[in-house]
Design brief:
Blueprint (H helix, E strand, L loop, with lengths): L2 E7 L6 H14 L4 E7 L5 H7 L5 E3 L9 H12 L4 E5 L1 H10 L7 E5 L8 H11 L4 E4 L2 H11 L6 E3 L25 H4 L5 E6 L8 H10 L4 E6 L5 H10 L6 E5 L5 H5 L3 E4 L8 H8 L4 E4 L15 E3 L4 H13 L1 H18 L2 H12 L2
Parallel strand pairs: 1-2, 1-4, 2-3, 4-5, 5-6, 6-7, 8-9, 8-11, 9-10, 11-12, 12-13
Helix pairs in contact: 1-2, 1-14, 3-4, 4-5, 8-12
Length: 367
């Protein structure tokens, strides 16, 4: 009898957790007698289209708002219609909806995943505490997330399984522009800029990422480096306004969301992630695998992935001056730069492969 597993996530927009869901879905679906179905609470998104290309069904439950209780009925109907035997939900909203649906599906195993160490809003952790009671197991990508789940949602340590995220080997270089495959390349204004060191950020434009710190750091690096920002999110207008007012505005470009990080990383001299908290920081291991040195903040989640002056440089959060100094250091000190690149590549091969991650997921899902 085939195993039928549902992966449920809040949304399928471009982002770290939807990427994890995609990678897990694709790999599990290749196993014999395993059938994966993916669902999201919101409407469909770009990652949903990527998953469908592998022949994996994707259902958008189309919640009209986060408190849309009709989505519970749709979820229960989907579980019954697809004869799902196990549901693994990701992020607090999906975990809460799955918890409400669980009593209506008594024969189904329910597992949950927490992917963040973001302390606020605190009510998320209170909801997660309630939702966790309905889950047989809580999967997390790092020790920092495990600690947050235990401290803030009172999840027992024995109920938590740490499964670090993985990364594929970067694709072989191929001719084409940065925008190949998404209908856009570098802007004309970007092409007219002087040749400077290229600093890259890839991620959602969310307050937790503290991108204003990076924009201020670029002002301190004016004439030395330029910044390319790839992503979209609620802070986009604020960031555009800050860039316009910055004396380094001609050296900062926003490109919007991209379906794959590899073309952007191919042209990067350093990848920066200056968040105040992360669950893991998937883009970090993507950069490390691509041979791009990383500068990041010394905060929960990130410090589980990056070791200071071994596989990257770590700086205090909320310090543009420290960011600027670290960026300059990694770009000017060629010996340190090469050491970080070599050590990071080796560490990714040792700790952060999808082959290893899928072993963890298979054990949790009993496949």
């Amino acid at each position: 009898m085939d195993r039928r597993i549902l992966l449920l996530v809040t949304d399928l927009k471009i982002g770290g957790t939807p990427t994890v869901v995609r990678e897990v879905a694709v790999r599990l679906n290749q196993l014999p007698r395993v059938r994966i179905h993916v669902a999201c609470l919101d409407g469909d998104g770009p990652v949903g289209a990527q998953i469908r290309k592998y022949g994996i069904p994707v259902t958008a439950l189309n919640a009209s708002w986060r408190g849309d209780l009709l989505v519970i009925r749709r979820l229960v109907k989907l579980i019954r219609h697809e004869e799902i035997d196990t549901t693994l939900s990701f992020l607090v909203h999906a975990n809460a909806i799955a918890a409400v649906a669980a009593p209506f599906c008594p024969a189904v195993r329910f597992l949950q995943s927490i992917q963040t160490t973001q302390p606020q809003p605190r009510w998320h952790w209170k909801v997660q505490r309630w939702a966790s009671a309905s889950a047989e197991l809580i999967l997390v990508p790092s020790i920092s997330v495990a600690q947050a789940a235990h401290d803030w949602s009172q999840v027992p340590n024995g109920k938590i399984a740490v499964i670090p995220n993985g990364v594929d080997r970067p694709p072989a270089p191929s001719p084409g522009t940065l925008g190949e495959g998404r209908g856009e390349g570098l802007s004309a204004s970007a092409l007219r800029l002087p040749i400077l060191h290229r600093v890259v950020f890839i991620g959602r434009l969310d307050p937790i990422k503290r991108l204003p710190d990076l924009i201020e750091a670029m002002r301190l690096l004016k004439g030395f480096a330029r910044l390319d920002i790839y992503g979209d999110g609620p802070q986009r207008q604020l960031l555009e306004n800050q860039i316009a007012a910055s004396s380094a505005n001609e050296q900062i470009q926003m490109h919007g969301a991209i379906p794959s990080p590899w073309p952007a990383l191919k042209q990067a001299d350093v990848l920066v992630l200056c968040s105040e908290a992360e669950g893991f920081g998937l883009v970090l291991i993507e950069a490390m695998a691509a041979g791009v040195p990383v500068v990041a903040t010394d905060v929960p989640g990130i410090r589980d992935v990056v070791r200071h002056r071994d596989t990257g440089l770590l700086v205090p959060a909320a310090s543009p001056a420290a960011l600027a100094a670290a960026i300059r250091c990694v770009l000017e000190d060629q010996g340190l730069r090469q050491s970080l690149i070599d050590n990071a590549k080796a560490d990714v091969r040792r700790r952060f492969t999808w082959d290893a991650a899928i072993v963890g997921y298979r054990a949790a899902l009993r496949i």
